[in-house]
Design brief:
alpha/beta, 17 helices, binds iron/sulfur cluster, Rossmann fold, 2 domains, pyruvate-formate lyase- activating enzyme
Length: 510
């Protein structure tokens, strides 16, 4: 019997799925329990990633980077394993000393989760339910429990950690601090309960060793536009060299993923720290990725609308390369956030650059047109309830939505979530009980728009056996029908129910 791994890296079940190959379907993990039976939800939207000998064949990008940095720091492949929660019991053995859990929104309090939970009010969100189930299970084992990832700030409170049986929380980038921290734990040394990582120089970021879900490959970190509420906005902007990126794409190709997603906060500004893109750098990257044997199309994780607006030729060039002779659309995510130039100036001055904030509504309208003309489908976010937002600000966003009515895009309003104070308090965040009639109308307009687009998009995700396709279709039809009904009420500027009480599942009961 082989020895059990010393270090196991895992994430809750909602993070360990291919979501039927659909990046947008992954957002359903932010849904509350109680809309669909759990078994139907997981069969239809989030079945487990493929696994081999107890190890996950595909995993989240963050877990893969931590795996790679541990391997570069003296641990062997036998000592480190990335594991789906379903295989934990058989993989944890006497030799296992650390189980590290990654995640993006462990407690289910970030947008869009908090908003879906507050509005729908059927139960706690799937990501929270599955994380709590996992951490409680692991904390009963004779191992050190470490939690990290984008959502780790939510747990960096000794009271929360004690309740959940978490020994250490790691916040921030992990390439430098995680190997140090894990070695100290294994030597039995005193390690702070909360460890804060530092920005990693690009040459210290390792190549991934195992494949990432959706073939995602990180090409840059940070953003450089400096919006006040945004975590990537606070990170230093760095870009990985092309050769490094190509190696990561190759790893995913070998695992059978032929549609890489290049991940950056603004893919079109790859290779520069200035606002103006370096066209030759971006084109070179896309051309070299497209030239790899087996690549069928290139998607992107995010673009900035101001970059699209100011560089339509670059968008055209990149699009021609990215489709790789296929007829498929190019997926991406982007932030509209508001139709109000005043709000943009206050919180997101850099978002419209090199134009001034007053051009923002025009930038949004024109850039979505440019993306559509070039075969892109963006999923856009709107921020609702930023501190100091007025009725007039919301009306300006409604005006903008009117102009976007026919655009082929998903537009998702997100409630502002404050990172100030305890993650267990919603006092400083925006919640349904603070909504104005104009907010409800905005939600209704967006929902109606999204239902129309989701009907078209969902056809592309009908994959798998006859039963799986049937269950997926059934679940989608039910969700979209309910959303249509809901949208009609919201568009009148009315809440669909009484929201005067704070919803008990808005924050976790630990
Ligand atoms: S443009 Fe987007 S990623 Fe960049 S700082 Fe602003 S919100 Fe963050």
């Amino acid at each position: 019997m082989p020895a059990a791994p010393t270090i196991i890296l895992t994430a809750d079940e909602t993070m360990m799925s291919k979501y039927r190959g659909g990046m947008f379907i992954g957002f359903t993990t932010c849904m509350p329990q109680g809309i669909l039976p759990d078994w139907l939800y997981f069969r239809a939207f989030a079945p487990p990633v493929p696994r081999r000998n107890g190890r996950a064949v595909l995993a989240d990008c963050g877990l893969r980077i931590i795996e790679a940095i541990l391997l570069e720091n003296g641990f062997s492949e036998e000592e480190v394993a990335v594991v789906h929660p379903k295989d934990l019991d058989r993989m944890i053995g006497e030799e296992t000393k650390i189980v590290a859990i990654g995640g993006h929104d462990h407690l289910g309090i970030n947008p869009p989760t908090s908003e879906f939970v507050d509005l729908v009010r059927t139960g706690p969100p799937y990501n929270r339910v599955k994380f709590l189930e996992l951490v409680r299970r692991v904390s009963r084992k004779n191992v050190k429990v470490v939690v990290g990832g984008k959502g780790a700030w939510q747990l960096a409170d000794p009271k929360v950690m004690d309740k959940l049986g978490i020994d250490h929380v790691h916040v921030g980038e992990g390439e430098i601090s995680v190997p140090r921290m894990f070695k100290a734990i294994l030597r039995g040394e005193e390690v702070p309960r909360v460890v804060r990582g530092e920005d990693t120089p690009v040459d210290k970021i390792p190549n991934i060793r195992g494949a990432v879900i959706h073939g995602l490959v990180e090409i840059s970190r940070g953003c450089g536009r400096g919006c006040k509420f945004c975590t990537p906005g606070m990170q230093k902007l760095r870009h990985k060299p092309v050769d490094h990126i190509l190696k990561d794409v190759q790893v995913n190709l070998q695992a059978g993923d032929h549609r890489p997603i290049l991940h950056a906060e603004d893919v079109l500004r790859y290779g520069t720290t200035k606002i103006e893109p370096r066209e030759e750098k971006v084109v070179e990257l896309f051309e070299k990725v497209a030239a790899l044997e087996g690549v069928k199309k290139i998607d992107t994780s995010h673009v900035a609308l101001a970059t699209v607006y100011h560089n339509p030729d670059l968008v055209r060039k990149v699009s021609e390369i990215a489709v790789c002779n296929s007829k498929e659309k190019i997926g991406t995510q982007t932030g509209i956030e508001t139709g109000s130039p005043e709000l943009l100036e206050k919180y997101m001055y850099g978002k419209a650059l090199p134009s001034p904030p007053e051009k923002w509504p025009e930038i949004v309208e024109q850039s979505l047109g440019i993306l559509e003309d070039n075969n892109w489908v963006p999923a856009c976010t709107l921020m609702v309830g930023l501190p100091g937002e007025t009725r007039e600000d919301v009306l300006k966003t409604l005006e903008l939505m009117d102009k976007l009515r026919d655009s082929f895009s998903l537009i998702v309003p997100l409630f502002f979530v404050s990172m100030a104070g305890s993650a267990l308090s919603k006092e400083n965040s925006f919640t349904a009980d603070k909504m104005l009639p104009e907010h409800w109308e905005l939600l209704g307009v967006c929902l109606e728009h999204d239902v129309k687009i989701a009907h078209k998009l969902s056809r592309g995700y009908e994959k798998g056996s006859i039963l799986e396709r049937f269950l997926f279709r059934l679940a989608v039809r039910y969700l979209l029908k309910s959303a249509e009904k809901y949208a009609k009420i919201l568009k009148r500027g009315e809440p669909p129910r009484d929201y005067s009480e704070t919803w008990r599942y808005l924050t976790p009961e630990l």
